[in-house]
Specification:
Layout (H helix, E strand, L loop, with lengths): L1 E12 L2 E12 L3 E5 L6 H8 L7 E6 L2 E2 L8 E4 L11 H11 L4 H14 L15 H13 L5 E5 L7 H16 L3 E5 L3 H7 L2 E6 L2 E7 H7 L4 E7 L2 H8 L4 E6 L6 E6 L6 H11 L1 E7 L4 H9 L4
Parallel strand pairs: 3-8, 3-9, 6-7, 7-8
Antiparallel strand pairs: 1-2, 1-4, 4-5, 9-10, 11-13, 11-14, 12-13
Amino acid sequence: MDLIRIENVTKRFAKHVALDDVSLSIPEGSIYGLLGPNGAGKTTLLRIINRIIAPDSGRVMFGGKEISADDVYRIGYMPEERGLYKKMKVGEQAIFFARLKGLSRKEATCRLKVWFEKFGIESWWDKNVSELSKGMAQKVQFIATVLHEPKLLIFDEPFSGFDPINANLLKGEILALRDKGATIIFSTHNMSSVEEVCDHITLINQSKNILSGNVDEIRHRHGANIFEIDYRGEEQDILKALAGRCEIMDSVPSPTGFNKIKLHIATDEEVRAVIAAANESVEMRSFREIIPSMNDIFIRAVNGNL
């Protein structure tokens, strides 16, 4: 079942078209990556889902009905522009945000203590927000975003400014929230994060949705029929056996005896013949397809080469 459906959404700012007839579906209980170069329209779409701005045309469906003002209480949104009041105490700031989302002060305090301890920032409760580093401030804002346990969580560049250790901490918490039933959308430029945590993605470029689907399916669908063979034997033997059957892209002899050869096979139908020819000429140890990374697919799609 889809929790969110974007139907033919268009948004203009003066003469600039930020979104041009964009449609996509976000399955319930999934982590959905929203990708695209700067200025593609990602943040505009996130703001429309969160009802900060309205589309010029099209609509957003939430749980099978058109999204309404009351649905905002079922959404947690952490924008790329972090917004904390620097003169407030950290704890009071977090309680303030929780109260805005409908929690009582008692319940907010109880939940915040758990999250502050989990993130190792309990000693900062009574300090001023102005004393926080960028990473610490992001932890506080992340906690404020998830504290009311919303059905939908939206993160715009959530890993920006985090060191690798804290980025992994955040990834772990995002995965745990999904496992507890939350649906998560996040916009990011970090392609490795997409492969690690996303179930589905949409790539927006020049205001249009140019690619959507399951991450693994997209990677396999846009593979380029490139394979790698590990073998033991003479390089000249395997090169002779494969001549005319495929394109040899790289051949790397190894002093350990396990050599590698990288090749491109024009069609799927020719794969078995290549395997058989290689196996007859050398001792073949492995044959595997090289699946493109999301970073490769992103670059090819944006450049119009997908």
